């Protein structure tokens, strides 16, 4: 089943070749030429990735990103814009974008980043089914978990608190999965930035603090005893306590 991409771009001369390129690569593409229709389209569902221009005629693209994230959208958001300054990148990532590509850009790089984001945000339903039909006594539902225990399923890219799934963005998942890989160990800020934001990122690490802040709030709201603790001057660690 092809991935569904929403291109939010008001300039016809930019949108037309992008649509042709994406469709040639096998994606289903919708286009919105303004911010408010884009928000409505995302809220309608079935959008795997949003390619988002910032200079829109009704509302700024950053506000579009902020609203779709506030509405619970967990797919990828890639900002495409001529605003290539460091501050613009920081603000874009802080409001929930996953990646940032400054104009002008090459189509090959755009497609590479599109594929990378879609891999990171792919729903678990697309995971390959077991080859062997042997009957298994274990249920397909989430593994039993005590009370409010936190569980990170790295293969399915899903987070569970007890039997409830915790909705997180791609970057939030990557940060949490890294900390969960060695619970209790301290991960330096540099290590987290290198592993999660990789070579696509340069500049301030403020976006890391913003992502950590959102994760902390989600963990607290979920009722789990797991907490992300700041180790002053070093980095972060994930602390989990057994449920009472």
From TrEMBL:
The lineage of its organism: Bacteria, Bacillati, Actinomycetota, Actinomycetes, Propionibacteriales. The keyword Nucleotidyltransferase does not apply. Transmembrane segments: none annotated. It comes from Aeromicrobium chenweiae. One of its GO terms (molecular function) is transcription cis-regulatory region binding. The keyword DNA-binding applies. Residues 126-148 are annotated as: Disordered. This is DNA-binding response regulator. Residues 130-142 have a biased composition (Pro residues). Keywords: DNA-binding, Phosphoprotein, Two-component regulatory system. CDD domains: REC_OmpR_PmrA-like, trans_reg_C. One of its GO terms (biological process) is regulation of DNA-templated transcription. Pfam families: Response_reg, Trans_reg_C. One of its GO terms (cellular component) is cytosol.
